[in-house]
Amino acid sequence: xxxxxxxxxxxxxxxxxxxxxxxxxxxxxxxxxxxxxxxxxxxxxxxxxxxxxxxxxxxxxxxxxxxxxxxxxxxxxxxxxxxxxxxxxxxxxxxxxxxxxxxxxxxxxxxxxxxxxxxxxxxxxxxxxxxxxxxxxxxxxxxxxxxxxxxxxxxxxxxxxxxxxxxxxxxxxxxxxxxxxxxxxxxxxxxxxxxxxxxxxxxxxxxxxxxxxxxxxxxxxxxxxxxxxxxxxxxxxxx
Amino acid sequence: xxxxxxxxxxxxxxxxxxxxxxxxxxxxxxxxxxxxxxxxxxxxxxxxxxxxxxxxxxxxxxxxxxxxxxxxxxxxxxxxxxxxxxxxxxxxxxxxxxxxxxxxxxxxxxxxxxxxxxxxxxxxxxxxxxxxxxxxxxxxxxxxxxxxxxxxxxxxxxxxxxxxxxxxxxxxxxxxxxxxxxxxxxxxxxxxxxxxxxxxxxxxxxxxxxxxxxxxxxxxxxxxxxxxxxxxxxxxxxxxxxxxxxxxxxx
Amino acid sequence: xxxxxxxxxxxxxxxxxxxxxxxxxxxxxxxxxxxxxxxxxxxxxxxxxxxxxxxxxxxxxxxxxxxxxxxxxxxxxxxxxxxxxxxxxxxxxxxxxxxxxxxxxxxxxxxxxxxxxxxxxxxxxxxxxxxxxxxxxxxxxxxxxxxxxxxxxxxxxxxxxxxxxxxxxxxxxxxxxxxxxxxxxxxxxxxxxxxxxxxxxxxxxxxxxxxxxxxxxxxxxxxxxxxxxxxxxxxxxxxxxxxxxxxxxxxxxxx
Lengths: 239, 251, 255
What we know:
The structure holds 3 protein chains of 3 kinds.
Chain A: H1 2-9, H2 15-36, H3 38-42, H4 48-81, H5 84-89, H6 95-128, H7 135-163, H8 167-183, H9 189-192, H10 203-206, H11 210-235
Chain B: E1 5-14, E2 17-23, E3 26-27, E4 32-36, H1 43-50, E5 58-63, E6 66-67, H2 72-77, E7 79-82, H3 94-105, H4 110-118, H5 134-146, E8 152-156, H6 164-181, E9 184-189, H7 192-198, E10 201-206, E11 209-215, H8 216-226, H9 233-247
Parallel strand pairs in B: 4-9, 4-10, 7-8, 8-9
Antiparallel strand pairs in B: 1-2, 1-3, 1-5, 5-6, 10-11
Chain C: H1 3-13, H2 19-36, H3 51-84, H4 88-93, H5 99-136, H6 144-157, H7 159-171, H8 175-186, H9 189-192, H10 205-217, H11 227-248, H12 251-254
Helix pairs in contact in C: 1-5, 2-3, 2-5, 3-5, 3-7, 3-8, 3-10, 5-6, 5-11, 6-10, 7-11
C-alpha cells in the first residue's frame, strides 16, 4: 500500500518525466560518444563493454546522480512545501514506511535508468563492436556492481532530503557531494567510500578489491538504514 | 462520565522556556471544548502533544482510556486533526489528497465524498490543491480531519483565513458535529466570541498555565467572584489574561 | 534608477543568504584532496609538462569541469529564489523600475559572484601550492603571470555559460528542473568539446580553455585556441540569452 501511496504523491511533480527524459539522455551518451569516436574506441584493446564503460561511465554516473539528487529533493519537497508531512505523521502510519517507500521508488527509478543504459551499451556493442556470449554476464555483473555501489548514495540523498525542510539546502548538499565525486575517486580507499564518490568505480577499476567495495557498500547501506530509522523517530518532534 | 481527554500535570519545556506548565485538562465526551488563549499561550503545543508531534517533558495524558506513547497508533487512528496551517500535497487535487488519507486509514471510498460534502468542497474536489484559495485550503485541511468521521477531532484555529461566510459555516459545522457524527471536538482559538459560539466547555490558557476550565456559565460566575467584568465574555477573557500577566514575571 | 544603483541594491539582497559560503565550500572540497594527492603531480601523465604546471592545471581542470559551472547554476537559482520566496519580485515589479534593467542587474550580481569564486580559487591556488610544495618537498608553484592569465581567461570564457544558465533559471518555472537541467548540460561538455562545433556549446568553454592550456603546457606548446568563430559565436549566444532572459523576466508575475 505504501508504494502505491508514495507513487500517487509524485503525480504532477515532474519526477517521472525527469527520470524518463534523463534516462534517455544518459542512454544516448554512450551512443553519441561511440558515434563520434568510433575509430578510437574500436582500436582499443579489451572487451567492448570495458571500453564503453571506461569512456562513458563518468558522464553516465553523473547524470544518474543528478537524477537521484533531483528525485530525492522532489520527493520530500512535496511533503514539506504545504506541510503534508505533518498530516502524514498524525495518521496511523509508520514514519519508516514513508522513508523506505520513497527509497524503494527512487531505487526503482534508478533501475529504470540502468536498464536504459544497459540497452545502450548493448546497442553500441552490436553496432560498432562484435557481440559475444560473454557480453550479457559481464553486463549483468557490472550493472549489479553499479547498483550496489549507488544504493548508499541514493539512501544518503533521501536522508538529507528528509532532514532538510528547505529543498534548496538538500539540493546544495547534493551538489557539493557531487563535486566531491568528481575530485575524490582517485583518493585513498576510505575516501572513495564517501556517498557520491563510490559509484564512479567500475568493476574493472576495483579489480581484486571489488569484494571490499561491495562489502563496504553493504555496510554503508545498513548504517544509513539504521540512521534513517533513528532519525525518523526524532523528526516527528521537530516539525 | 469519564473525560475522553484527560491530562495530568502535562508540561513541555524547551530549554529555559516553558511552553506548557502542569496542565490538567478534562474534556468531556460528545462536547465541543474551546481551547482559548492568546498567541503563544501553548495551545498548539498541547494539541501537538496529543498527536505525538511533541514529546511531553513531564506529565501524562490519556485519550479515550488510551495512553501515550503506548497507544499512539490507535490514538491517531481515532483522531482527526488540523494543526496550525492546513497540510496537503499541492500537486494533487483535493480529492486525491483526501484519498491518500482514506487509504492510510483503511476507509471506504465514499468517505472522500462525505468529507468533501461536509466541508463544502465537492465542486472544487478535482482542482489541484495548490490552486485553492486560502479559505479552500483551510477547508481541505478540515476535510482531511473529518474524513471517516472520527470520534475525536483536534482542530487548531480552524477558521484561520476564512471569509465571514466561511467562518460562520465552519462554526456551524463544528457546533453540529457532536450531534451529527457523535464526535468530541477540541478546538482552539484566540478569539473568545468564536469559542462562545461553538463550545460547551472552555479552557483558558496563558503562558502555558491553565487559568480556567469549565462551562461558559461557570466562567461568568468565576469572573464575577473575582470582581472581573462578567457581562461581556471578551472582557472577562482579557481581564483574566491581564491579571495573570501582571502576576507572572516574563518567562 | 540606473543599472549600477540597481546592481548595488541587488547585492544588498544577497546578505545573509548562504550564497557566499556556498561558493567557498566546493573550493575547500577541491583543494584538500589536491594537497593530499600532490605527490601525483611529480609524475605527470602527459609528457612535457612540469610538476608545478601539472599541479596547477589539474586543479583548475577539476574546477572548470564541474565545480565552477555547478556553483554558477546553484547561484542562478538561489538568486531567482530570493525573489520568488515571499513574493519579493511582485513588490519589485510594483515599483517604478524597468524589469529588464532589474534582470540585467541580477545577471551582473551573478557575474560578480562567479568572479569572487574564480578569484578565491586563484588565491587559494597560491596558498595551496605553497602548502603542497612543503608537503611533497618539491616546488609546485607555477608562474604567477601564467596562473593569472589562465584563470582570467577561464572567467571570461564562462560569461556566455552564465548568460545561458541565467536564461534557464528565468524561463524554467520549476527551480529544481532549472538546476537539474543545468547540471545535465555540464555532463556532455567533454563529449562536445571534441567536436568541430564546440564553440556553439557555452557550457564547455571554461573546460575547453583549461584543457587547451593543458595541451599547450604539455605535448603541444604551439597550440592556441582559434578566436574565430569562437568569440563571435560566444558574443552572439550571450546577447541572445540575455535578451530573451530580460524579455521573459517577471513575465509570469505580470500576466
